[in-house]
Write a structure and sequence with these properties.
With about 325 residues, this protein is an alpha+beta fold. The protein has two domains: about 25-70 and about 130-200 and about 300-315, 3-Layer(bba) Sandwich (FAD/NAD(P)-binding domain); about 95-125 and about 205-295, D-Amino Acid Oxidase, subunit A, domain 2 (D-Amino Acid Oxidase, Chain A, domain 2), CATH 3.30.9. Helix content is about 15%, strand content about 35%. It contains six helices and 19 strands. It has helices at about 35-50, 75-85, 130-140, 190-195, 260-265, 270-275, and strands spanning about 25-35, 55, 70, 90-100, 125, 145-150, 150-155, 165-170, 175-185, 200, 205-215, 225-230, 240, 250-255, 285-295, 300, 305, 310, 315. The strands form three sheets. Strands 1, 2, 6, 7, 8, 9, 17 and 18 form an eight-stranded mixed beta sheet that branches. It has an eight-stranded mixed beta sheet with strand order 3-5-4-12-13-14-11-15. A three-stranded antiparallel beta sheet has the order 10-16-19, with no helix packed on it. Helix 1 runs parallel beside helix 3. The chain is elongated, with a radius of gyration of 21 Å. The model is unreliable at about 1-15 and about 15-20 (pLDDT under 50). The chain binds flavin-adenine dinucleotide. GO terms for molecular function: 3-(3-hydroxyphenyl)propionate hydroxylase activity; FAD binding. Keywords: Oxidoreductase. This is FAD-binding domain-containing protein. Pfam families: FAD_binding_3 (PF01494). InterPro entries: FAD-bd, FAD/NAD-bd_sf, PheA/TfdB_FAD_monoxygenase.
Length: about 325
């Protein structure tokens, strides 16, 4: 069990800041705020349809650690479509479930298999940093997409034609991008949603999980390969997925109890104890990250106001 380390995808090109030379103003058919998987995919689809697109993200690089670990078949086919021939490089493995277990030592016997996903048997495990790397490379190749990385959205004027005030995060230089349409793909914090005055409807109670991701060979892991195991353990409910990807062998999401000592829970020895029931050979397991994922399910009251649209985690988060 090794400590977490920074993940870098092999072959990722360095994207160097060129803050002082670029122009931060312009008029486009569409401006996309946020270059996560949703924004990058939307930008490529719009550009493929003939639009001139600007995409803005305050980060220079994709988030380097795994986040979502599996997607449904509709999302996967969209990613493949926008990646074209490069889709072959995407690490994927069949995923299924969820199935509910009451005893973490008996992962051969599900209690029930609830039909939470319409396509439960055609999901796929993915490695999100690699997906986002490939999407950003596809954007860079697209002649109709202008990328503004290292640029933060600061103010949105939602007039007949949306105008986005942006700031270069290094130089502090300001500019305005205007467009016929603006897409808020800026994640759960939802800058565009907030600026547009769109309210959230909270769907459930907040919950916190300790997420543990590891490289681990499938033959040393308990349970069914690719399946999302929901373990209704009386002491600590958890979600466990032996994913079978080279980059990401397994994920655990352990429920954190209210008031629990989180730093103590994240100590290496404690993590070793938590994952021990699922791992036959601990020496073959390398922990990539352990992080706390705090989540409140929500959906925005609307996904459109005038020519501003909300997409992805900015408009709903229901996991
Ligand atoms: C540990 C962990 C586990 C997760 N597990 C799951 C899961 O099991 N299921 C699930 O559905 N989701 C999960 N998520 C959430 C997952 O990350 C999202 O579902 C997915 O990344 C959403 O994609 P997105 O493109 O909508 O938003 P994001 O990937 O969040 O991308 C938003 C982008 O907008 C940029 N941005 C934000 N504000 C601004 C601004 N003002 N100016 C410029 N750029 C801005 C950000 O830099 C970011 O690149 C998890 C997240 C974490 C951290």
């Amino acid at each position: 069990l090794l400590p977490g380390r920074m993940l870098r995808c092999a072959g990722r090109p360095e994207r160097r800041p060129h803050a002082l030379v670029r122009e931060l103003s312009g008029r486009y058919d569409a401006v996309v705020v946020g270059c996560g998987p949703v924004g990058a995919t939307a930008a490529i689809l719009l550009a493929d349809a003939g639009m001139r697109v600007a995409i803005v993200d305050e980060s220079w690089h994709p988030f380097p650690f795994p986040r979502v670990e599996s997607v449904d078949s509709a999302a996967l086919s969209l990613f493949r479509r926008v990646l074209g021939a490069e889709a072959e490089k995407l690490s994927c493995a069949p995923a299924s479930g969820p199935a509910v277990y009451t005893d973490k030592s008996r992962l051969d016997k599900p209690t029930v298999k609830p039909a939470l996903y319409a396509d439960a048997e055609s999901r796929a495990s993915i490695f999100q940093p690699q997906l986002e790397d490939l999407l950003r490379s596809a954007l860079e190749r697209h002649a109709r997409v202008h990328e503004f990385f290292g640029v933060s959205a600061r103010h949105l004027a939602n007039e007949a034609e949306p105008a986005l005030m942006v700031e270069d995060v290094i130089s502090g230089k300001m500019g305005t991008l205007s467009a016929t349409y603006l897409l808020g793909c800026d994640g759960a914090h939802g800058f565009v949603r907030v600026q547009s005055g769109l309210q959230l409807r909270v769907l459930g109670s907040p919950a916190s999980f300790l997420v543990v991701d590891a490289e681990a060979p499938l033959d040393g892991l308990a349970g069914t390969s690719g399946e999302l195991h929901l373990v209704a353990d009386a002491e600590r409910p958890l979600v466990y997925a032996p994913l079978g990807l080279r980059e990401l062998g397994a994920r655990w999401q352990f429920g954190i109890r209210p008031g629990e000592d989180v730093p103590a829970l994240r100590a290496p020895e404690r993590i070793r104890t938590l994952i021990a029931p699922f791992v036959a050979q601990p020496e073959r397991v390398r922990v990539l990250q352990h992080t706390v994922y705090a989540h409140t399910p929500f959906v925005a009251e609307r996904w459109r106001t005038r020519n501003v649209f909300l997409c992805g985690d900015s408009v709903h988060s229901t996991a």
